[in-house]
Amino acid sequence: MSKEEKKVNRRDFLFTASYTVGAVGVGAVIWPMIDQMNPDKAQQALATTEVDISSIEPGKSITVLWRGKPVFLKRRTSEEIAEARAVNLDDLPDPQKDEDRVKEGKDEWLVMLGVCTHLGCVPLKDKGDFNGWFCPCHGSHYDVSGRIRKGPAPTNMEIPKFEFVDNNTIKIG
Amino acid sequence: MSEHEYVPKSKAAKWFNDRLPLLTLGAHLTDYPTPKNLNYWWTFGGILTFCLITQIVTGIVLAMHYVAHADLAFASVEHIMRDVNYGWLIRYIHSNGASMFFLAVYIHIFRSLFYGSYKSPREVIWIIGLMIYLLMMAAAFMGYVLPWGQMSFWGATVITNLFSAIPLVGDSITTWLWGAYSVDNPTLNRFFSLHYLIPFLILGLVVLHIWALHVPGNNNPVGIDIKKPSKDTVPFHPYITIKDAFALLVFMIIFAGFVFFTPNVLGHSDNYIPANPLVTPAHIVPEWYLLPFYAILRSVPDKLGGVILMFSAIFILFVLPWLDTSKVRSAVFRPIYRQFFWILVIDVLMLGYVGAMPAEGVYLVLARVGTIYYFLHFIVVMPVVGYLEKTDPIPMSISEPVLTGGAEPSLARKVNDKV
């Protein structure tokens, strides 16, 4: 190859500039096509749910739907709280203190996504080897704090963003 | 291919053919020289084409009555079953048709594995075939979601959650797939759209699959290269068409048996319960044709590891032509490989069985053993056996064992019977 041919000339510049503009154009068209599949405004509008918790007795729990997913609200007894706090953190695949999973001063209320962190099934309450939840799909056992203890799930059941609006109402989301 | 040039008889036909050589294509497909020793395992290509057309035709009809909305889908399927004229028949053909499609494709794939049809020069045919297989699984999965029953909903939840195992971006990808924060109406809507699209993608790939096949021509039970056309070949029509048609008839009898006598035996009764996002069925089981992969997924006690292994089980097949080191194609002449082939068949059937059982105790052990063998077969057995194996003598042509007595008398007899 001669030196002449290797030299960058005006045509090379034009090619590169055209490809670049073309790539930006293609990207600008592709992104809306991809992003249209993300949750739309109607889905995002369902982002919060308020729940009346006044009728839940200690030791009982209810399940509500938030963003299409079940949320467990469990009012724990003092024995259950003590049991959750007595666990040695070294025994946990995903170590997390029970205190970090509830709101301070509202220790009896466990509010968490009722979604197994393995493949998204809804675990059954009061089942499994750890007095908590058991996922029937692939056999994950959760304890009374919703922490993974045994089975294929990688992490503890997720705690959603929530707050106490007043003593009888929880707002999730 | 050394075919003589086709010249249409009438002037009008010639005029048209000069402008668009469709008649030449037709003549090529009719005369296409085919090995004369193809056995019934070779009839599944035609059967699969029939399955695809059946699914497309019944699917288009079902889409005329189905409503892709979370509140209406379940009821619209029941409406098809009860109110639409012959709706029950069309839906049962479509749902059982999916199973028959997979039955045929598995036989087709194992045929290829036994006779070495994936090997040079047919690697591209094999790879296109695997792409068709992947699209079939996607179409079948999304189709199963559409009735919006409990298995639909929770199957969709479990399978889409597989993507959440991807580090960092997993959750965003899953949300993007759903179009919501869980499997919901947007998910159903897009699955319907894609379920309608995929069969036509498959159709396009089938054209490429056949095109790629017609370049080297068919492999055959003895697995040798043959001269085309020669005394080793017969024209596709009428010899192969009539054989394919007979096999198709037998296949259709079995198909009709399912449709008319046990239309729900391959499905799951939980899918006649409307989807409920608050309750997971006690046993989530995929359709039978996905069970071996499900068993592999569950055999690993780690989420990401299970997902990776499951996808690897499929993608390893793409490099199969390069993992197999044997120069001999057909397992008929490979005494050692032949035995491993049957072990693989048993292994996959066993994985399918344990995939339907709870993942605990002896089933978990079997799933792990089965998974390990599955990968060993492709990564170790195929390259090593190909090297070490002493293969049986190969005939020079398909006709040779008949004419010379050949090295393989049983083969000679087989060919003799047909002549």
SS-based class of chain B:
mainly alpha
Distance between the termini of chain A: 66 Å
Rg of chain B to the nearest angstrom? 24 Å
Low-confidence stretches of chain A: none
C-alpha geometry of chain B: globular
Radius of gyration computed on alpha carbons of chain A: 26 Å
Task: Name the strands of the widest sheet of chain A in spatial order.
Answer: 5-6-7-8
Q: What CATH architecture label of chain B applies?
A: Up-down Bundle
Give the CATH topology of chain B: Cytochrome Bc1 Complex, Chain C
Q: Note the main sheet of chain B.
A: 2 strands, antiparallel
Oligomer: heterodimer
Strand proportion of chain A, as a percent range, falls in 25-35%
Q: In summary, what is this structure?
A:
Chain A has 173 residues and is α+β, with helices and mostly antiparallel strands. Chain A has helices spanning 3-6, 10-35, 41-44, 78-86, and strands at residues 49-52, 61-66, 69-75, 109-113, 124-127, 131-135, 140-143, 148-150, 162-166, 169-172.
Question: In words, what does this structure look like?
Answer:
The complex is a heterodimer of chains A (173) and B (419). By secondary structure, chain A is α+β, with helices and mostly antiparallel strands. In chain A, the strands form 3 sheets. In chain A, strands 5-6-7-8 form a 4-stranded antiparallel β-sheet, with no helix packed on it. A 3-stranded antiparallel β-sheet of chain A has the order 1-10-9, with no helix packed on it. Helices cover 25% and strands 27% of the residues of chain A. In chain A, a hairpin with a 4-residue loop joins strand 7 and strand 8. With 419 residues, chain B is mainly α. Chain B has one domain: Up-down Bundle (Cytochrome Bc1 Complex, Chain C). Helices cover 64% and strands 1% of the residues of chain B. Chain B contains 17 helices and 2 strands. In chain B, strands 1-2 form a two-stranded antiparallel ribbon. In chain B, helix 3 runs antiparallel to helix 9, helix 5 packs antiparallel against helix 6 and helix 6 runs antiparallel to helix 9. Chain B starts with 10 loop residues before the first helix and ends with a helix. The C terminus of chain B is likely disordered. The chains are: A alpha+beta (173), B mainly alpha (419). Chains A and B meet through loops of A and helix 7, helix 8 and helix 12 of B.
